[in-house]
Structures are given as structure tokens and as C-alpha cells.
Amino acid sequence: MQGILEELKVDGRNLSTAKGTPYYWQGDANSIVFEENAIRSVLMDFNSLVMAVALENRIGLTARGNISTSPASGAIPLMGWAIPVSPQTLGNASFCATYGTRYAYYGGAMANGISSAELVIALGKAGFMGSFGSAGLVPARIEAAIQTVQQALPDSPYAFNLINSPNEPALEHRAAALYLSHGIRNVEASAYVDLTVPLVLYRAAGLSMDTVGNIVINNRIIAKVSRKEVARRFLEPAPVDILDELVKENKISELQARLAQQVPVADDITVEADSGGHTDNRPLVGLLPTMLALRDEIQAKYHYPVPVRIGAAGGISTPTSALAAFVMGADYIVTGSVNQACVESGATDHTRALLAQADMADVIMAPAADMFEMGVKVQLLKRGTLFPLRAQKLYELYTRYSSIDEIPAAEREKQERQVFKRDFGSIWEDVIKFFSERDPRQIERAERDPKQKMALIFRWYLGLSSRWAVIGEKGREMDYQIWCGPSMGTFNDWTRPTYLNDPGSRHVVDVALHLLSGAAYLYRLRMLTMQGIRVPASLDAYLPTAPLI
Ligand SMILES: Cc1cc2nc3c(=O)[nH]c(=O)nc-3n(C[C@H](O)[C@H](O)[C@H](O)COP(=O)(O)O)c2cc1C
User: Fold this and answer.
1) Residue-wise over 489-527: b if at least 16 C-beta within 10 A, else e?
2) N or C: which end of the chain has fewer CB within 10 A?
């Protein structure tokens, strides 16, 4: 029988680079498998120790028998082994213990309820964690989602997103107040450049001391960051000036302010590399080690009883990328783009179909609605929509002119006709209505500053285009703003030959289980290949053949 792993000798030449181990294997030779499917099954039996043994010039695998140090009779050379690694053992067990998950994995927030209550509930019930996409939603919708999720997951993990909104600080205040009043215990904090009062309040208000003097952290923060200077703020204790202000306003006790100076602002830092949505487009291979080193530096200074964990996000959508993140030292991993493509997301079928066709290069950076004036960009799907080009044009007009009236008449009319499909006067009336409910100070400021008025009018289009995509607004298909990272394309490439190629078959828990199962399989395979045991390309891949749920 021909073995599928590299033969030891062909024509007397040793082709395998496997040097072997100083050990021997003893056991039933019938348990040794050489054929591809059997080898795959042995490696997929994640809890077994797999031994590679040399028998009659072939290498085969077995999970039975014993390892011995001496070549007793019947013992054969042990060429290598793969230790038990399963989807549950990847990552840091303390992440699972803290959040009550089975896996070191969570689904990142996706604004406008794209990471919907349904998605968060599905992940939570299966031992993962999902972060509800509160950004862009009015408090009443966030509150409704809180009620739905809390009812469905009384004892299972979930998180809610607290997004920094420097342009509309009232939104962040209200979201933090809702989380405090509804006992939301896990918050994913994102888009922060500096720490804010609502964020520090959420953290400090959840601190207490147990009867033996240990600090109890009731309000956990997972901070999503892509820059070292921002990570540092979350790794250190909260700033004293903000804590003092909160004590003065009777929002936290003096004890809580003192405790807050002994714990980091965040329990976890999710390092966001090149991802969908807000991103600095940094490569994970560079960013993650940098942040791990920063964490170690700050831990050495503060000696927190539980060091801040570091997770990886951005670009993770295949077993290989998931494994790479864990092997680089990520305590947990986070996905986003692939979850939007799943049936539980708040996206429409139209969006899911576009996402399913995306290639890795079909994404582009375009101006962000929430931080438009600051020139912040988000990563979007470029294929099948004109939004990125139109938004970029609006940003150019904003930087070149100081008011709507200063834009040349022909250009203004073109924008009104093609992009806004309304005149700017009536758009401004809508903007006034919108902000009178959310944050009237925005209008007051814009009435004083014509450039700001232009920004709000342009943000009408940028803000609505993502809503149009979510609600499937007819006639606005070419204006859909669909946040998406290059990981979507790599996911499509990986799943093309499988049932997951069909957008209707993509379920958020199934995708997560396949990513982790594939990562565990590949890890075990890598252990063998790194011991010099060569494998054919057909074994060097994990393909989802059937749903795992
Ligand atoms: C459609 C979409 C919307 C997103 N909205 C948010 C958001 O509101 N808040 C946030 O913290 N992250 C947001 N993200 C980022 C994700 O939570 C996650 O960190 C990121 O997508 C991971 O990278 P990936 O897209 O390569 O998987 C969004 C991502 C996508 C794809």
C-alpha cells in the first residue's frame, strides 16, 4: 500500500527531512493509518495524541499504542507527534473563564444593528460571544435589543458596543447610561482616540471590593484599538482627573475612584488590523506582536493580578488566519466581515449576495460618516456600488470649499441630481429634524458655521447610505455603503468549493466552528510538518464539508 505521508526512502534515497525522535512506538500495527481520509480523521480527533511512526519505509499515523525510550522488540521509530489541540483549547482559557464562553472567539460589533440581536443570541447560545452593533442606532433601538438579548441569554455571554462619537457625544453618553441602567456587563469600546467620561464612568461604576479585599470588576471593557498610544490608555488605570470629576458629581464613590486607579481601563484589548469598517489598514503580523510587547511593558509596571489579554481582529476569515493569530500569541480572535455575510446578520439578501462575490481586492477606503470632518475613513465593498467614489467626491468638495454656496453651481446641481436626488435646501430641513431629536447643539453650531452646515448635509448622504444598505432601500442600490474588509474575499476563496459558497448556507455559529476546527486541524498538521514530515497538498487544507451545527 502506498503511504500518503512522505515515504522515508525511494530508490535508497531518504526523501523525508524528518530526523525522527529519540523514541520508539509500540502497539498494534493495524492502528497505523496511511491513507488520506484516515489520516485526516486521526488529526481531526482533536483530543488524541497523534504519533507518526515509520513502518516499512512509510510514515503513518496512529493515536494508539505507547511511546518507549528503548528499541524493545516490536518497537518502531517514532518520527514525530502532534499534541491534542481542539477548538476549545485555542487561545487563552482566562478569556473563556471571564466571559463564560467555550471558545476564545467573539463576533465584533457591526453598526446599525448589522451584528443583530439574532446574531448575538446565536453566538451566545453556542458558547461564543457576539457584540451588538449599537453604533448609529437611536437609544430606543439599543434598549429594545438589550431586552431581547437579555431575555434570550440570561446566563450566556454577550457584549454591547460603546462607540466613541466625538461629533455627537450625546450618543455615547446615552449608550453608556443605558448599559449601566440595564446591567450590561461586557462592553466592546471602539473608535476611541482618548478616554471619555462615559467610558470611565461605565468602568468605575462597576468596581467593588469583596470581603477579603480583592477588587471585583463587574463592568468589563474590551477595547478595540489599532494604535499603540490608544492601547496604552486602556492598559493603564483611568485618568485621575476624570475620576475626580465623577466623584464630585456623585456618579461614583470615592472607593470606586480609588479602585479604578488599581485596575486597567480594559480587561481585553482587541488589536484591529486591516478590517472592515474603521481601520488603519495595519498588518496583523506587525501590529499584534507590538501590542503584546506593550502589554508586557505595562504589566511589568502595574503587576495587575490578571494581565490584560490581547486579541486579534482584522483579516481573520480562514482557518489559516485564525491559527496564525493564535500562534502569534493572540489570547482570542475576533471576526466581523464574515459575520455580516451570514444569515443572522442585519444585512439584506442583496448585500449578502454582493459580499459572496467579493474578491480580496474588491474593497476600498472611503470617508466615514461619523468622523467625516476629521478625514477618517472606513473600509468598504467597492464592487457593485458607487458609494465609495461619491463619498470621496463629497470629501474633496468639503475640503476645497467653505460653504455649500461656494461650490460652483454646475457641480452643486450635479450633486443634487445624481447623488442626493434632492435639493440641498430640503436636505437641510431633514438634517434639522434629525438632529433636533438626537443632538440639537449640532444644528446651533452649523447655523453659525457654513462649513459645518456643509459637513452635516454631506453626512446626510454618508449616514443614510449605510442605512439604505441595511434596510434594502429600493432605487438606492448604487449608493449602498457596505463595510467590508479584505477578509471577505479570502473567506469566499476558501469556501468556494464547499456548501458555504451559497450565501443562504452561511450561519454565524457554523462559520465560527469551522474556522476553529480548521485552525485546530492545521495546527496538528503543522506540528508534524515542522518535524520534517511532508504531506501532500490535499491534506494541507481544511474544507468545510458539512455543517457543524
Ligand atoms: C459591516 C461592519 C460594521 C462594523 N461596525 C463596527 C462598529 O460599529 N463598531 C466596532 O467596534 N467595529 C465595527 N466593525 C468592525 C468589526 O467589529 C470587527 O472588528 C472587524 O470587522 C474585524 O475585521 P474583519 O472585517 O477583517 O473580520 C464593523 C465591521 C463590519 C464588517
Assistant:
1) bbbbebbeeeebeebebbbbbbbbbbbbbbbbbbbbbbb
2) N
∠ CA 510-516-520 to the nearest 5 degrees?
A: 140
Distance CA 150, CA 526 (A): 41
pLDDT of the residue at 166 = 84
CA distances, 118 to each of 104, 152, 310, 349 (Å): 20, 10, 27, 16
Cβ-based neighbour number of residue 168 at 10 Å: 15
Ligand 1 touching residue 62 (CB < 6 A): no
For ligand 1, atom 17, the nearest C-alpha belongs to: 108
**Whether the Cβ atoms of residue 212 and residue 268 lie closer than 8 Å to each other:** no
Say whether pLDDT at 165 is over 90: no
| Predicted model pTM | 0.95
Probe ligand 1: pick from 105, 110, 164, max atoms within 8 Å of CB?
A: 110
Structure-block grid coordinates of residue 374:
476629521
Q: How far apart are CA 152 and CA 108, in angstroms?
A: 19
Q: Which of 337, 351, 470, 488 to mutate to test the pocket of ligand 1 (most atoms within 8 A of CB)?
A: 337
